[in-house]
Please model this.
Amino acid sequence: MPKQYYLTTPIYYVNDVPHIGHAYTTLACDVLARFKRLDGFDVKFLTGTDEHGQKVAKSAEAAGVDPQTFTDRVSQNFRDLADLMNFSHDDFIRTTEPRHKKSVQDIWTRLIERDEIYLGSYAGWYAVRDEAFYTEDELTKNAEGKKIAPSGAEVEWVEEPSYFFRLSNWGDKLLKFYDEQPDFILPQTRRNEVTSFVSGGLQDLSVSRTTFDWGIPVPGDDKHIMYVWLDALTNYITGVGYPETETGEYAHYWPADLHMVGKDILRFHAVYWPAFLMAAELAPPKRVYAHGWWTNEGEKISKSLGNIIDPIDLVNKYGLDQVRYFLLREMPFGNDGDFSHTAIVTRMNSELANDYGNLAQRVLSMINKNCDDKVPEPGSFTSDDAKILDFIGNLISGVRQDMDRQAFNEVLEAIWVGVRMANAYVDHQAPWKLKKEDPARMATVLYVLAETIRHLAILTQPFMPDSSAAMLEQLSVAEDARTFAHLGPDHALVPGTALPAPQGVFPRFQEDEGGEEGA
Ligand code: MSP
Model:
């Protein structure tokens, strides 16, 4: 039986057009989902849109349409982004769907039944931009003298009847839980942030609002709508068929293996969400990973600065797999990073076009010209041959461990050690010289290289699905022979297999023409 792996992205607020930050979070999940599928797991990958709350209601009003019409329209932008980026999610959830309303009302009822929610009234500060409550001591003032939250969002005073979740009861249980699951919050630095927040003492959390109505009504008291974060977080169990817990997908996939989030929304996922679940007597997720933020040429990305990076522009300019590669290669996952034109062009040209693309192009053209367009017949392997084949055949074990820590940049770095080793091997063996001197040895060298490229292309599939497929096609590797189970000598290329004409896969970025050059 394959082992299951359930991972999720945050669900995106539909008040915004999709930008690089959204593409980044889902890309990381997509790479992980593809990796796990190739590694034999039964994967469920969920993404979607967060459509309720005051922030979305205000955006709809500003656009002059009712919230449902507005969310139908903007939610589509996120599905279009997913197509553009070649994301492989298994389900796309919208919080306005009936299945989700049922699920949220059910978890609410479980919390009421367990006396974890009570009716009171709220008087305090609220930031619509963050959809979050703040205490007085968390606030500072901006240049205009207005009170702002630590995120920079302006707050407003809110006073209304409200239901509260007894979060104050959960501090010790959360700390115990973090202790027992040391990898629940990654990276470790973020974990410390959360534990110190929880150790500082938790207050009960307001979980309903009465001053607007764009949300899911509280069962039995429909003057109240549920707090948008309780609504949104519950999507992760709606996606596996909750409230059905005994059979079906919930029984199969829950608890989730990974919630991928940005650092700004860690508290909701690592404090509130496990507390809600434990209070409802449902299992908490296994891991929350908080990644860093992108800046644009050194500047914070914001609508007001007008420097939003549109994924559509990036893909049109640099190419899809180039963008996918760059976003996960450029900075250690978990850290903040800077997007710049120079940085992406450098990586495209040196690592993709020169190191990887040229390697494949050189080898495949030599095979095409000198081996009758067929996988060459190798003789016996020298120790140099055995060394590279062995290295490349075993790369997966380290890569698998890096992937399980979400260390995407390290995975790519490890694969590129293989790429560079292959380039050094070509230079050293100089097959072009062997052509006259020792054609049998040339065939062995080209075979070793073709096998090396087969391995590299199988390993790069999660990051660059189309380009890797193009490479595997050029080696005539069948579509059902491209999983990680096909790594190693048992599934090696069969000498004599006919190969199609070689084509360049990673073009160089040509600055003068402002676009790509055909390879
Ligand atoms: N709707 C909530 C999430 C609810 S999950 C139950 C939300 N949505 S969001 O659309 O504002 O943000 C979604 C994700 O985009 C977050 O993980 C956030 O960190 C990420 N990013 C937004 N801007 C970003 C950058 N500039 N860089 C990297 N990621 C950033 O929060």
Residues 10-13, 21-22, 24-25, 50, 232-233, 235, 261-262, 264-265, 293-294, 301 surround 5'-O-[(L-methionyl)-sulphamoyl]adenosine (CB under 6 Å). The domain at 341-491 is CATH 1.10.730.10 (Isoleucyl-tRNA Synthetase; Domain 1). The CA atoms of residues 175 and 195 lie 7 Å apart. The two ends are 44 Å apart (CA to CA).
